[in-house]
Design brief:
Layout (H helix, E strand, L loop, with lengths): L22 E4 L11 E4 L5 E3 L2
Antiparallel strand pairs: 1-2, 2-3
């Protein structure tokens, strides 16, 4: 069984695109364009690496 992922980077304080402060950890990209976990904005879906 794989080890649970622990993000090394904390979620951003605020989204630079829409200003929200709500983020969720997304493990895989739907379209295959991002092969790593990322913090995704719950408003506009802007994201940044979580590793």
């Amino acid at each position: 069984m794989a080890e649970p992922f622990t993000p090394q980077e904390p979620a951003p304080d605020e989204c630079p695109e829409c200003g929200t402060t709500a983020f969720e950890l997304d493990y895989d990209a739907v379209d295959g364009s991002r092969p790593f976990p990322a913090w995704m904005c719950t408003g506009c879906r802007w994201g940044t690496a979580a590793y």
